[in-house]
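Workshop exercise sheet. Pairs work together: one partner reads the sequence aloud, the other fills in the structure field after running the prediction. Swap roles for the next sheet.
Pair: D.N. / O.F.
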Amino acid sequence: MYKFFIFPFLLFPLIIMAQRDSTSMVDSVKTYLDKSLNIIETNALNSKNVNWEQLRKDVYAKASGAKRYEDILPIYPYIFEQIDDHHGSLHYKNKTFGWNKKADVQVNNTIQKATKKYTFVHSEKIGKDIGYILIPGNNDFGAKHMDSIAKDIKDAIAKVNDRKIKGWIIDLRVNTGGNMYPMIAGLSELIGEGRVGGFITPNHQPDGDWIIKEGTFYVDSIKVSTIKYEGYPIKKNLPITVLISGNTASSREMTAITFIGRAKSTLIGEPSAGYTTTNLGFELNKYSGLNLAVDYASDRNKKIYPKNIEPNIMVSNGDNFEVLSQDEKIKKAISWLKEKK
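Structure field:
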């Protein structure tokens, strides 16, 4: 919403002169920029590490002479860089402006190609007693398909699970993110009961616990999905391996975190992408809004992950999604599962 101000008549010539000055922003643009900076300073995860007086001076210098909102949009990547937030962004109409931080991890061509190819949940048996499920990312940011995504995952597990299954491989290598809630809800029977993770503020205060109770996923007391697992009962405390890569990002990193600290579980592969913060949206006007990193993600032991997730067992490259028996990460997972049976 725009704010309009009525000035005394005597000030009117000064206002006109200021707007004709090429070094000044017009009032509406400055109001928009000020609102943005105020929201960011109040809510950004790393706000306390920023010299806000200096940042404002720098931003205003870059915005000098701006006449339209479009004139200041290219400044926002700089703002996000200064607050060390590569997960956040400004959304203006159909465009996004964020900081494209140089990746700390490299993603090989095989995983990059597989990320584009494998867009549906897939499950199968490996041998006679190991279940395998590959979960891609999703674009359900509006939570319109929460139950259907959770159901796809539960149905894929039920398709494979039987009395012979003695362990699972959960493949998150080609998952670049989306909505974390249906993914965790879909895997709830494998993740286990109780607090499995949560959001933690910069002051290390809880800001939403992830809880699984009788197979249903809650955030604090809010039920995420009503979809129930319908298949052969899943044995408790089955050994589970989770495969991760540099393309395991954002909500998929949150999903991987729910297995950290679980008995008989391990992460195999390469370091994750490093989008382990929780984001919150703030409206600027009817055309735009900010998406800011505001919290850390924590595991069931309340350990936070400010950078990324390191695998317990490092396996670089060797990916083969076409022939799983030749995939080096799958081989390592099978070996680990056999030891834990």
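Discussion prompt: The first strand starts at residue 89 and ends at 92. What would you look at next?
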